[in-house]
Amino acid sequence: xxxxxxxxxxxxERGVVMRYCxxxxxxxxTPAKRDKLGEDVKAWxxxxxxxxxxxxxxxxxxxxxxxxxxEIRFERKVNMDDLxxxxxxxxxxxxxxxxxxxxxxxxHDEGTPQPCQIIEEYSKGGS
Length: 127
Hints:
Elements lengths: L1 H7 L10 E10 L2 H15 L4 E11 L5 E9 L2 H17 L2 E11 L10 E8 L3
Antiparallel strand pairs: 1-3, 1-4, 2-3, 4-5
Helix pairs in contact: 2-3
């Protein structure tokens, strides 16, 4: 009985602090299109409280395409959901050739790490 109760507890009730992560890897035709998305994402992030280290990178892949990647964590689920929707909308409007954005429930930075759980993903242009 006690074991069943412990398993039915939410992560926060078990003492696990949930973080909410958004990650994306996107490919563009031009640096201008890549940089515009990067500026828009940074402006959006600048208005939110983030948790831990945020990773944002731009460059070129092995085939010469422009790429942009992001990994960011929040303390509030609503921020993850909003950023995911923001990036998804940008992927539909900006000529992204190929890419994926995912949202994760993260507990891997806690004392008893667990793997991230991808809870939603959106892709464009194949894998």
